[in-house]
Every structure is written in C-alpha cells, then in structure tokens.
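Provenance and format

Records in this collection were gathered into a single text stream. Each protein contributes a sequence line and a token line. The two records reproduced below are adjacent in the stream.
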Amino acid sequence: IFPANSGNKEITWMMLEAGAETDVVNSVGRTAAQMAAFVGQHDCVTVINNFFPRERLDYYTKPQGLDKEPKLPVKLAGPLHKIITTTNMHPVKIVLLVKENPLLAEVEALQKCYRVLDLICEKCMKQKDMNEVLAMKMHYISCIFQKCLTFLKEREDKLDGFIKSLLKGRDKDGFPVYQEKLIRESIRKFPYCEATLLQQLVRSIAPVEI
C-alpha cells in the first residue's frame, strides 16, 4: 500500500511483479488501489488496475487437459503481455503495438491471441473475486485484434488501413466516427450483461449521439 500512496509508479510496478497481492486489505478494509485513489495517486491506481501477472498468461503456453497443443505459442506470450499491461487503451496505440511486432501481425497469431483473451475475460468474470475492469479490458483488446484480422485478410494496406480508418475524421468537424463506432461495438458485444461496469457504460453512452 505504501508505494501506491507515495505515488511512485515504478516501485508499485516492481512490487506487483514481485508478487504483491492487489486484493489484500489494510486495517480499515481498503486495498492498495483504494487507498491510492483516496489520497489522489491516480497514476498508481492505473498501474495496479492494469497489472496482469506474466505467469497467468504463461499458463496458456502449456497444453491443458486433453489438449495436445498449447492455446498460445510461447513466442507470442511476451508481445501479448506487453499489450495486456499497457495503460494506454487508445485503439490506435493497440494497433501500433501489434504492427510493430512481426510475430503478432499475422492472421494465425492474432487468432490465437484473441481466443486466449476471451478465455481470460471469462475467467475474470467467473472467478470468486470477480474483476469486471480486467474482463472488460481483455474483451476490448480482443475486439481490436479481431478487427485487425479483418484488415489483414481483406485490405491491401492491412494495418496501415486500419490506423487510417481510426484516425479519419468526418468532414464537418473532424470527429473520428469509425473509432467511436468500434469502441461502442466492443461494449455492445461484451458477453456478460449482468456486469455492473457494462451497465454503467451503457447508461453513460446510450443517450449520447455520435
């Protein structure tokens, strides 16, 4: 809790990587993220809420049960983990992270990655300590990966075309309509309708016209 309260993002991250538990509470029943938010250290809250232990992803690099092959090739774990733990959720940033890594920017690789993200999303929602924020993040990245697949398969300009579509503004005011529709579509497709976070997002977005 102390690194989070001090506002030191680097030390907070180091402690998380060393195995610090994010759901442990102090004497007044607050987690590190809640205490950091209480004292205004929102950067540290972001670090904590976006943390996903590498070993949880590595689980999918080993065959499970009756599977003969792992769901995620070992070579994809590092690049995927980098995207999962990013705090910049802008769709262009995520596509750029895919584009900069040749291992990820392939149809088969992205198919494997988005399926693993969907499994992590499901686990976040069905585990004892439900994590709606992380589940929504995994679903959102999965949706962007699936849209990357569409451009890789159907467009000659591939991911460059996707980035251009995300950045293109409409004529009258420059508003990026395609980007807005992509984000709204990902929210609409979130499979767990009972999630409080989803209901809050829908209430906030539904009355707002594009």
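Adjacent record:
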Amino acid sequence: IFEYDLKKIIALSTLSQLGMMMFSISLGLYELAFFHLLTHALFKALLFLCAGVLIHGAGNTQDIRSFGGLSLNFPLVTVCMNLANLSLCGVPFLAGFYSKDLIVELACQYSWGIFILLMMFICLSLTVLYSVRLTYLSFVGPYGGGTSISVCESDYSLVGPVVILSFTSLVSGPILSWLNFPAPVLIFLPAFLKWGALFF
C-alpha cells in the first residue's frame, strides 16, 4: 500500500494472490486454487506488459509519483491496465471474478468461523485499495513531472501483445470455468454474505 515502485507493486500483488490460492488450498479447494492460478497468470502477465510499456514511455522511471495523467498519452495501455486491475479486484464478468468469487463464496458456505471470513474480506478490500491507488497515481492523478513519450503506442511490437492478453483476460474466466467445472457449483448463502465480496 505504501510502495511507489511500479514493478514492486505488481510483484507484491502477486504475493497477495498467492495468499488467496493458499487460502483456497487450506480449505481443501485444490481445483479452485489451480483455476485461480491460471486466470491470475493471464491478467498478471497483462499487468506486467502494461507496466513495461509505461516504464519505457515514461523515460525509464518506475516511480509512480512521477507519472500522473498518463491516460492522455497512453489511452490504449490505460484501458488494458485498468482491465487487468479490475480483473485483479474481482469485478464481475472479468477473469478474476470467476475464480476469486467462487473461492470467497465457498469459504463463506463452509462457515470456517467469523475470524477467518473477516480476514478474507479485509484482504479483498486491501487488494482493491492498492489497485485503485495504482490507477489513480498513474493515470488520473496530477502530473508528476516525469517525461512521457506517447509514441510507444504506435509501436505494434509493444502494444500487440498487450491487446492480445487483454482479450484473453476477458474471455479466459468463463472458458476456463467451463473446462474445469463441467457441472455448475451450487452455493447457498444469505444475502449479506453473497454480496460481501462485491461490497468489499
């Protein structure tokens, strides 16, 4: 949450998602942990590629305090990186939602205790917090004074893989869900727990 290095933020968010996978394994949900690993690999690769384009275009600096307002110079990378960030947060119908929401709902259904559920929801809210912070400081916030080269988006060797991974991170959630779980998973939860993941 207090890190300013772009690559470190993305790498530390990988540790957060590995914690989610270990949490799933500790509940005995091995298939869900593997499913989350696959979907997470796709949108995390997209995050790292977008970060590489931003670092290259911002004069080889990784400090997000010197970015600010990059959405004007990098509109395509902004859309793709925000797509990956929203998928990381588990926004409905993106790749991360299909795996993360299933882990959260099954953890709530098994009712492992209020402390474990509370810690899980706090971790979910922290994921959203550092993702929104990264988006704000990089794309929306005030200009930090760094150099910016907007011609990076005209280089198809940089932007081509970003667009391809954006498409796969959109469609990989439902496709992998259908491949891994041919039968639908029935989850019975009270309304406040069903909406808990989206609320946090």
